[in-house]
Amino acid sequence: MPEVEKVNPYRDDTRSKDAQVQSMFDAIAPAYDFMNRAMTFGLDRLWLRRLIGVARAARPAVVLDLATGTGDVALALARALPDAEIRGLDLSEGMLEKAREKAGRAGLSGRISFAQADCLDTGLPDGCADMITIAYGVRNFADIAAGYREMYRLLRPGGTLAVLELSRPVNAAVKPLYRLYTKTLIPAAGRLMSHDTRAYSYLPESIAAAPQRREMTDILAGAGFADAAFRPMTFGVCTLYTARK
Known about the structure:
Elements: H1 17-40, H2 43-58, E1 62-66, H3 72-80, E2 85-90, H4 93-105, E3 112-116, E4 129-135, H5 144-154, E5 155-166, H6 175-193, H7 199-209, H8 214-222, E6 226-233, E7 238-244
């Protein structure tokens, strides 16, 4: 079991990790987009462009964006793939409300559908998607291997998986600054901007405990995926994982 599966948003909460994650994202939904931009210094947009490049090359007709959050990935997919059907799923209804609002403002409500669902057990039929994307959601799973097995089930043969996940840096010179930033500055900013004082302490804890690079591709391979590969970005603070069914 990856260590991150034991890391919960609320330490003294006896609920399941899924229930805690859902509550956490409902609580931070109003501040999520601002905090995401601020915490990454806008680099999340660069990382998203790399994921969208994979999507353009795959040319899918149907894309599932799991842990869609406030819909940034789904919106970018809709713009990049004008002929594709985009479906966004997330545990948090609070995050989905923001996603629907953003899609409406962008004039993309007719191109994207959003629904509440557990990414480990979506209830969708086998082989219903040509591509699955997920950004910054895998480390929140109570069972990462089960999540990947569900993604494998949902993909059609030959389908593509693209995963963005935050990770520990690989550059020795960056590591001290990264530790200071994630363990001190992010929690402090989170307490100021979010009503949930614990959420932005959980973030660096979950990144530190999450499977990294080769360990993650090994889990993908164990779930049945072929050609699992990883690409570190920005000194390794974010990693793009790709695989196919």
